[in-house]
């Protein structure tokens, strides 16, 4: 009976599971016993108690009298915000930089190459500390704020950008219009990026018409300097600006290389075929190369997105309260270190597994049909 | 018969049709490697040319120069009265009027057969979608695979894919068709269906330049056969003369090797 392959494999697996379970039980019981012996409380009850910790800035509204779970949520929101912004910007910039690196224009290609090499070959923490020091060493005081783009001011106090707010008279109509536009965009995505020439303007027109019918009023709140500080607009602290800009620069370098590899992975023959049909270079890229490249670059790109989430913990280097920084404070304040560490592990695992499953879903959707 | 002294001078075909392609003193180098040496060739409208020669002789490179997939460094190429220079607009105009079929089909694997055919009529000729679809179906019927329209290239056999590639080129209503070893990557039993399609095209009076080793096909449709070796046009003649009485040592050697 023991020579039967199936039986043997079941026996071995049962034995292994048994050993692992016994080891885990031993760990847990020893930990509990030791903690109890030292009088350290264990359990998740503390989460509902008032935290009394200070979080210097937050996307959500947080006061120090809020309970621990809300402090955790605030830290998590900060991390998700950083990751989302960095992922969006580095994807767009990485696409541009990666494709430009293959350009025949030596100046453009060279510039992008410098970006990629600097970003890829410097430790991200060095990049962040360097950028952070720029706020104090290079940028002027708030009264002489540097104005690189209309409405954007950079000074020692951070970045000020115009804020856009929307006021809708009939929100129901707007929802319908946006749903229509979204459905059209979904249909377009299902066409695998292959659209009749007027599709993109049409989708846009549906959205704009919806906004117009619903009588939505956009107001842009331009920052105005009042003599001592800025009124209006949205202020980003030097800490948040540094982590956003620094991680975007860093991640763009990697995304650009992945994009370059993706473009090169599409055979020369596809370019030949496109050229021989009279398609100009830009259209070959958009209609033929990029759709095929996407399926090659999604898995490595996903690894970079996961890295963004993990690298967002470097926020601690410039003093921005991301999830890990908040958790550290919570652990030292509440002395629930075991629970805290489990929450940290669980949250990063959940974030990254969600990213992976989204990437896998997308990858299955765009797979090439064969046979 | 060509004398060896006249071998570099392209003989004009008897037809009085205007020239579709004219190459005068065309040279091309890859770095220091001289791939094409002083090519002189005139192709008349409606003419069918078969280009043969040993591998590495520059046949593919020469026809790829005609639609500027390769750049030539010296001499002149005039297609339909327009000279090929670095002027991107002119290159695009010329490419629109030249169809090309490749050894490895080069269909777009992420698009269905129909979308493969509709892509350039829509984006280059600004055709309406329904119009492009009609054109595409017309040519799919011509290459006898309208029932495959909604499949993807990966689901078709090699012969079917190559016929799709021919239909895709025809959708742009080209004036000239270039074939770069269209049957070399096919399983033997699929060669005939592709050659039949090409014969039908030839009978419709399409100007064709065809790099191929299918000598039976060459004998059947070619007005002239161009034999190339080491980057030069060694011999140019009508098929019956070329096969029965090759004038050059290198042609004789080549024919001896491939006709067994």
What does this protein look like?
- The complex is a heterodimer of chains A (371) and B (260).
- Chain A is α+β, with helices and mostly antiparallel strands and 371 residues long.
- Chain A folds into 2 domains: 5-39; 68-162 and 222-366, MetI-like (MetI-like fold, Orthogonal Bundle).
- Helix content of chain A is 66%, strand content 8%.
- Chain A has a 4-stranded antiparallel sheet.
- In chain A, helix 8 runs antiparallel to helix 9 (281-311) and helix 9 packs antiparallel against helix 12.
- The two termini of chain A are 42 Å apart.
- The model of chain A has no long low-confidence stretch (mean pLDDT 86).
- Chain B has 260 residues and is of the alpha/beta class.
- Chain B has helices at 59-66, 88-97, 113-123, 129-142, 158-170, 188-203, 215-221, 239-244, 249-258; strands at residues 19-30, 33-44, 48-52, 74-79, 82-83, 98-101, 176-180, 207-211, 224-229, 232-237.
- In chain B, strand 9 (224-229) and strand 10 form a beta hairpin.
- In chain B, helix 3 packs across helix 4, helix 3 (113-123) packs parallel to helix 5 (158-170) and helix 5 (158-170) runs parallel beside helix 6 (188-203).
- The longest helix of chain B has 16 residues, at 188-203.
- Residues 1-11 of chain B have low confidence and may be disordered.
- The A-B interface holds A 192, 194, 196-197, 267, 269-270, 272-273, 275-280, 283, 287-288, 291-292, 295, 366, 368-371 and B 64, 67-69, 88, 92, 95-96, 98-100, 102, 104, 106-111, 115, 119-120, 122-124, 126, 129, 151-152, 154-155, 168-169, 172, 178.
